[in-house]
Amino acid sequence: MSDDKRRARQRRERVPEKTLFLLAALGGALGILVAMNTKRHKTKHFSFRVGIPLLLLFNAVLYGYFLI
After folding, report:
1. What pTM was estimated for this model as a whole?
2. What average pLDDT does this structure show over 40-64?
3. Domain ranges (residues) in the chain
């Protein structure tokens, strides 16, 4: 999220949203959610406001399943 925000400010090529969602689905949802709120990046996008918390829940369920 920090890298994408920096690239946006510099008007450079951005990180695709698909990539950000993939990273969240692979276990990085908590990090993306924290970065979204601290950097105030992608917080107005409905797909991120709803999708990332859902992926966080999905991550928590998977972690719980594999740890128990």
Report:
1. 0.88
2. 95
3. 2-67
